[in-house]
Amino acid sequence: MRPCGVFDKTYEKDIAIVRTWQHWTILVITLLFLFFLPLIFSHHLVSVVNQIFINVIVVLGLQIVMGYCGQISFGQPAFVAVGAYTSAILTTKFGFSFWLALPISGIMAGIVGIIGGAPSLRIKGFYLAMSTIATFFVAIWVIVHLKITGGNTGITPPSPQIGSFAFDSDERMYYIIMLVVLGMTYFARNLMRSRVGRAFVAIRDNDLAAEVMGVNLYYYKLLAFFISCFYAGIAGSLMGHWYMAISPEQFSLIHALIYVGAIIIGGMGSIPGVFFGVIFLQLLDELVLFGGPKLAETFPWIGSAPAASLGVTAFGLVLIVFLIFEPRGLAHSWETFKASYRLYPFKS
Predict the structure, then answer these.
(1) Any bridge partners for residue 246, and if so which?
(2) CB–CB of 339/275 below 8 Å?
């Protein structure tokens, strides 16, 4: 839907992502804001934004395989771990540059993802979900028992460098993470508008009908898992070099639930929904971190245990509320608002 008086006179303009001068203005202002963000806000806020961006990359990959291709996956943290350990091992053990280890980490996670996604060729639904959970436990077990990964102790990757300049702070690392997020968001957005994206959606809606129309189910299902895990591997590499410390405890099944919850809250099959869901859950987490101690101080009779578990409780309650009252997520609410705004003062 276009604003009144806006017409597309060419096919290129019709398929353009940024269509009007208002869109271009908003885009430029947003990019300038992102560029100057570390210079304006506090160290803690920059750290929170870095975490949001890394989670956005992970959930973008999960959105491709779940929201667009319809394949359930709870193994995403394992592929984040594969990317993180691959990058750390390449840079610490073999002397690779971070800039070379970053794409290799994504490719390695994608290859492991193809192995983990192979059961999707035969099973679906609940059984596929159980299969991806099994893949998660197998991958973490292998990481813990490999000598080169450092076992339970973990590994300490170095900071990225360009010459003598090291990205050894949250503010400096922010620019790498931000540029990667912008690039991968642009790729995901265009991928869903391509032939591959349309094949993913056809498989999600009805895989039998898609196969009858000539869609190669085996190829596109494995491709969806590869792309999803590639995103997870890139996020893992960025996270490892930002934290400068990696251990198996950083990759748990609760993270898989959070990633899936971000898609449900943001909206299945929506790129903007990824940002809505991740930002919403990060803000919820910050609220819990602030409110948990206050709750224990205000009501000391409840003890410290309920206050400590407030984060998981709040996440579960929010998920239930969205599943009941807004199952299509925040992205649907945003689209509804935009439609009513464009038609104002008329009713939609």
Answers:
(1) 155
(2) no
Contacts (Cβ under 8 Å, ≥6 apart) of 124: 71, 72, 207
The residue assigned the tokens 């198996």 is 248
The HSE-up count of residue 137 (CA atoms within 13 Å, CB side) is: 5
Check residue 123 and give left, alpha or beta (phi > 0: left; psi -120 to 50: alpha): beta
Q: Which 3 state secondary structure label does DSSP give 74? A: coil
Residue 340 β-bridge partners:
none
Structure confidence by residue, pLDDT tens digits, 133-171: 999 999 999 999 999 998 888 899 999 999 899 999 999
As given in the structure block, the two tokens for residue 187 are 């790729």
CATH number for the domain that contains residue 112:
1.10.3470
Separation of CA 342 from chain center: 30
**Structural domain of residue 79, as residue ranges?**
43-343
**Residue pair 266/274 in contact by the 8 Å Cβ criterion:** yes
Instruction: Examine residue 293 and state whether it is found in any structural domain, yes or no.
Output: yes
Question: How far is the C-alpha of 12 from the C-alpha of 18, rounded, in Å?
Answer: 11
* Residue 246 DSSP class: B
pTM score = 0.93
CA-to-CA distance for 84 and 57, rounded, in angstroms? Answer: 14
> CB under 8 Å to 167, separation ≥6 — which residues?
159, 160, 161, 173, 175, 176, 241
- Distance (Å, rounded) from C-alpha 184 to C-alpha 187? 5
Please state, in angstroms and rounded to a whole number, the distance separating the CA atoms of residues 30 and 49.
14
Cα dihedral across residues 119, 55, 194, 197: positive or negative: positive
Instruction: Name the least confident of 19-23, 42-46, 143-147, 294-298.
Output: 294-298
Pairwise CA distance, residues 238 & 146, whole Å: 22
Of 249, 259, 235, nearest to 109 by C-alpha is 235
Domain count, the chain: 1
Question: Within a domain: residue 98?
Answer: yes
Q: Give the rounded distance of the alpha carbon of 311 from its chain centre.
A: 20
End-to-end CA distance of the chain: 12
Taking only the tens place, the pLDDT of each residue in 216-251 is 999 999 999 999 999 999 999 999 999 999 999 999
Tokens of 265: 């809250």
